[in-house]
Specification:
The chain is mainly beta. 11% of the residues lie in helices and 34% in strands. One of its GO terms (molecular function) is metal ion binding.
Length: 157
């Protein structure tokens, strides 16, 4: 019988590493990035249910994106589903920048209200706006109708 070798996620030369994603959320991160089988131009590595050294958690997800750097809006969306994530910008195999995602006090225009009767869903020129009631796990309350947004990943814009 042949022994199974451990497989590691290979390093990337240039791009972005999103680490410490909440276990099971890597596919939602790919959804935020708009990645699908039709638009992949560079390598993407995904690690799901990977052991972590953080004391509060046992498992995490990780996503590595070759030749891609994230804009501020994308990072803000990632913070909504992975509030403990870290973003590392890689250049020539070295970490050029590293930062934690941050969730502010308000979220504007990133998610839609789940209340079909909310003014933001009635065709009015009003951008969805939420108060952040809790950061980890994220809990958002609509400014207009007071609805608590239960499933953030399904309501991302």
């Amino acid at each position: 019988m042949k022994e199974i070798a451990e497989i590691k996620i290979p390093p990337i030369r240039n791009g972005t590493v999103i680490d410490h994603i909440e276990n099971g959320q890597a596919l939602n991160v790919l959804k935020i990035l708009g990645v699908n089988e039709n638009n992949i131009d560079s390598g993407i590595s995904i690690g799901m249910h990977v052991p972590t050294t953080k004391e509060s958690k046992k498992w995490k997800d990780i996503v590595k994106l070759e030749d891609m750097e994230l804009d501020e809006t994308t990072v803000s969306k990632i913070a909504l589903i992975a509030p403990e994530a870290t973003i590392s910008i890689i250049r020539d195999y070295y970490v050029a920048e590293k930062f934690d995602v941050k969730l502010g006090d308000k979220v504007v225009g990133l998610v839609r209200c789940s209340n079909p009767n909310c003014i933001t869903n009635k065709g009015e020129p009003v951008s969805p706006k939420f108060f952040v009631e809790n950061r980890n796990p994220p809990r958002l309350r609509c400014v207009y109708c007071d609805r608590i947004l239960l499933n953030i990943s399904d309501n991302l814009i």
